[in-house]
Amino acid sequence: MDGDIRYCKILNTNINVISMQETVDYLTRHLEDLRGNYVCVANVHTTVMSFRDENYNKIQNSGAMCLPDGKPLSIVCRRRGFYDAQRVSGPDLMPRIFEESKERKFRHYFYGGSPDTLEKLNDKLKKRYPWLNIVGMYSPPYRSLTALEDEQAIKKINETRPDFIWVALGAPKQEEWMHEHQFKVNGIMLGVGAAFDFCAGTVRRAPRWMQELCLEWLYRLAQDPQRLFMRYFSTNITFLWKVVWESRYYRKENRYKRIAMIGHKRIPSREGGVEIVVDEISTRLTKRGYHVDAYNRSGYHVSGKQFDEKRGKVYNGIRLFTIPTFKSSSLNAIVYSFLATIRSLWGRYGVVHYHAEGPCVMLGIPEIFGIKTVATIHGLDWQRAKWGNLATKVLKYGEKTAAKKADEIIVLSRNVQAYFKEQYNRETTFIPNGIEKPVVREAKEISERFGLKKDEYILFLARLVPEKGAHYLIEAYQRLQTDKKLVIAGGDSHAEEYMKRIYSYAEENKNIILTDFVQGRVLDELFSNAYVFVVPSDVEGMAMSLLEAMSYGNCCLVSDIPENLEVVEDNAFSFQKGDVGDLCVKLRYLLEHKDEVRKYKKMSSQFICGKYNWEEVVDETVRVYGKARRKRNGKS
């Protein structure tokens, strides 16, 4: 099994959690690595056979993949927390690969089926897929091949240099044949059962509605009752009985892997650093076999509904719950946190993970019911200028609740860690955010939309709220004499008076460009082509935009608050927080010393990507979950 492909163990068979498109992408992308290996396509019958036969179970689990051909298997996967599990049947996979062959020119060999079936299959495929490169077909005798016959058959296959070897011998014979010839053939073997007959038209397949209702077995039983009645009677009843009992054990043993995420606005979204962190951690936890539920807040993107992304019930394997709340910015967070917490009480979670101080107000509720809780403090939110007196008190109460009642607390900076120790005598775990090396892009869209070219602008990217300090940067920029533009990239965040102030600055100076909220390629291009990136914040937790800017190889200028200096060390420039004069001096220096800027650009990406890594963040987060469980169980 490939480490990147998740699987759900059903009656000891490792059934892949994957979609049809992901399967096609994986097989075509890794074709060279998969040559000689095989793919099983499992259903209820083969899964029960695997459960009963230890040797056949080894065969099922020894290939490159074991796909859920039967819909009941994908349903069981979803019931066990793999919410994105889908059916990937052999008869549906085969034509999808054929379509890919139009551009990729894949070579196909067909092994199995009767001579009549192969003849009809060949005719049908040539009519339906005239581009298909069929390099060979072979119908082996129903008896076992002699050693010489087998050697000749394999030699014949390899001489045709196939990419895909489609095997239709029926279970368990086809899986046994593929396992016996693993790494003896040049192509990847796929056991597709009755797919040859369906495609050739020699056997009719169940209509789609019966497939969706898990009744395909009934349709096939009606076609061949004498052969299939006892088989289905035995395997279907055994499957239902064993899966029910196994599921009870599975829920008990894997409860610790069920995680609830509460406190972000919405994922997927770039509305703030909290959303990025929840998205990155949840996605990676899911890939490690954890079952994550993310409690999204209802409403629109803070910068406007035009920036909303389409969200289904499942995203990257994460189950999404949308919690209704008030539109009022002063009430929606607290109401959301309460309702999300109440809903989580019925989730059988191993850990409820709160993000940010405000939502931690409700942290005591799961604690009453004996549910383990972890709080991530992304920053001292009550210090932010946008909050009024009441909101500040609520945030401080959330902070105090986390300090007193959370089983474990995660902080993103050493400064906040020291604050919790001094203020509450509470030990916390320091886990910074992570970053990945991005793809640097040429200035195309930003050139068309904003007239920007490489190294011809200074970049600020954050929410437009007072504590992010955009006004300091604009005031400093206006004191400079430069042809370089100032780009202010960021959306509204319930700070109307401040927004009016920023817009008034831009109206006075045409070289100040307000892009509004940005994402996707435009965001990538802004990071990729900036001359200098500036973080003039008064308050930060751990600025994701700073990590991203450095990962793109930017020279950065940051305010000298501990949270910023801790990130950049000596790999960026700094200025005194809130001092427009000092910021102006540092900007002028960077504009006049291009060699210095180039020097810092060269070192920033390697430094930041080496220092911060999302996989290490998840490693540490999993350890914190373990500590929370042991603490509540009285083991530490």
Describe the structure.
The chain is built from 27 helices and 22 strands. With 636 residues, it is α/β, with parallel strands linked by helices. The protein has an 8-stranded mixed β-sheet with strand order 11-12-10-9-13-14-15-16, sandwiched between helices. Strand 14, helix 17 (389-405) and strand 15 (408-411) form a beta-alpha-beta unit. Helix 1 (20-29) crosses helix 6.
From the alpha carbons, calculate the radius of gyration and give it in angstroms: 29 Å
Discrete helix count:
27
% residues in beta strands: 15-25%
How many beta-strand elements? 22
Shape by Cα distribution: globular
Gap between N and C termini: 36 Å
* Largest sheet properties: 8 strands, mixed
Q: Helical residue percent? A: 40-55%
Runs with pLDDT <50, length 5+? none
Write down the overall mean pLDDT: 90
Q: Strand arrangement, largest sheet?
A: 11-12-10-9-13-14-15-16
Q: Which structural category fits the helices and strands? A: alpha/beta
Keyphrases for this structure?
globular; alpha/beta; 636 residues; 22 strands
What's the SSE blueprint?
Elements: E1 7-10, E2 13-16, H1 20-29, H2 31-34, E3 38-42, H3 44-52, H4 54-61, E4 65-68, H5 71-79, H6 90-104, E5 107-112, H7 115-128, E6 133-138, H8 147-159, E7 164-168, H9 173-180, E8 188-191, H10 195-200, H11 208-212, H12 216-223, H13 225-253, E9 258-262, H14 273-287, E10 291-297, E11 314-315, E12 318-323, H15 332-344, E13 351-355, H16 364-368, E14 372-377, H17 389-405, E15 408-411, H18 414-424, E16 429-430, H19 445-450, E17 457-461, H20 470-478, E18 485-489, H21 496-508, E19 512-516, H22 520-529, E20 532-535, H23 544-551, E21 556-559, H24 562-568, E22 573-575, H25 580-592, H26 594-611, H27 614-632
Parallel strand pairs: 3-4, 3-8, 5-6, 5-7, 7-8, 9-10, 9-13, 10-12, 13-14, 14-15, 15-16, 17-18, 17-20, 18-19, 20-21, 21-22
Antiparallel strand pairs: 1-2, 11-12
